[in-house]
Design a protein that fits this description.
The chain is about 25% helix and about 20% strand. It has seven helices and eleven strands. It has helices spanning about 115-130, 145-150, 170-180, 200-205, 215-225, 230-240, 250-265, and strands spanning about 20, 30, 35-45, 45-50, 55-60, 65-70, 70-75, 110, 135, 160-165, 185-190. The protein has a four-stranded antiparallel beta sheet with strand order 2-3-4-5, with no helix packed on it. The chain is globular. This is DUF3097 domain-containing protein. Pfam families: DUF3097_C, DUF3097_N. It comes from Streptomyces thinghirensis.
């Protein structure tokens, strides 16, 4: 008698095949058992190391059907050799491969100085180009009322402004309060200068020195740290070169810039 072997399991009960995805550096996945979500930073000996947005690392086994990619179950496999295209921008956002810059919106983001604009461009530039947001810089906070009046913010032309050292009761705070409206948002960070928003660890220093009141802050910092105080522009370029991504910036700045981008693109 001929023997037959049949799988009588209903098709809807059988595990469905899932795609195999190379664990390339920068790929963002979630481990469903723990809910940990992060970017791949390493893959070896059957395990993958993920880093979340706050810099925390976790190691997980690369088991079949072990991860979620954009909400879908996948199996991570060892990455193939060859160049890897980054999947995260410097701001931590998901990169859009091949994305072209969008035509500029009527809305704008203003920052207080050239150094502020250069830092925003370095970390958020890819995001801003995709969204079509232009960043410009003020000559000073005293010019803000006239700039807002000339800009005439409206529903289709929102204006966001980032101000240095915005603390309650200060001159900057009073100006910001006067120009804030439904279509104009002014936010600030607590630092005297945008330099201070760069984490000391990114520069290999223990901390930003205190500068006595009445003394130029940049000059005082350079002198205290042994940097050339006669050319603060060159010092800033050296600082900026040490900023690789949002991880090198203080969260008080990160949150404010993200808030402005959300406001202008809403």
């Amino acid at each position: 008698m001929r023997q037959y072997s049949a799988d009588l399991t209903p098709s809807w009960k059988k595990p469905q095949p899932v795609p195999e995805v190379p664990a390339d550096p920068g790929l963002v996945v979630e481990e469903p058992g723990t809910g940990f979500c992060g970017a791949v930073i390493g893959c070896e000996a059957g395990t993958v190391t993920l880093e979340d947005r706050f810099g925390k690392h976790r190691v997980f086994p690369m088991e079949p059907r072990g991860f979620l990619l954009e909400g879908r179950v996948v199996t991570l496999v060892r990455p193939s050799s060859g160049p890897v295209r980054p999947t995260r921008t410097a701001s931590g956002s998901v990169a859009v491969p091949g994305a072209r810059a969008r035509v500029a919106r009527a809305g704008r983001i203003y920052v207080e100085g050239r150094h502020d604009a250069e830092l925003v461009e370095k970390v958020w530039g890819d995001d801003l180009r995709v969204e079509g947001v232009v960043v410009e810089y003020l000559g000073g906070v005293d010019d803000l009322p006239s700039i807002v009046a000339d800009f005439a913010p409206g529903p289709d032309a929102r204006l966001g402004v980032l101000v240095d050292h915005l603390v309650p009761g200060s001159k900057e705070w009073r100006i910001a309060e006067a120009v804030t409206s439904e279509h104009a948002l002014v936010v600030g960070h607590p630092y005297i200068d945008i330099w201070e928003a760069v984490k000391p660890s990114a520069l290999g220093i223990d901390g930003w020195p205190r500068v006595p009141r009445g003394q130029d802050w940049k000059t005082g910092v350079c002198r205290a740290l042994g940097w050339p105080s006669e050319n603060t522009g060159a010092v800033w370029q050296a600082i900026l070169a040490r900023v690789g991504s949002y991880k090198d910036l203080e969260p008080e700045l990160l949150g404010r810039v993200e808030e402005l981008i959300d406001f202008v693109t809403a």
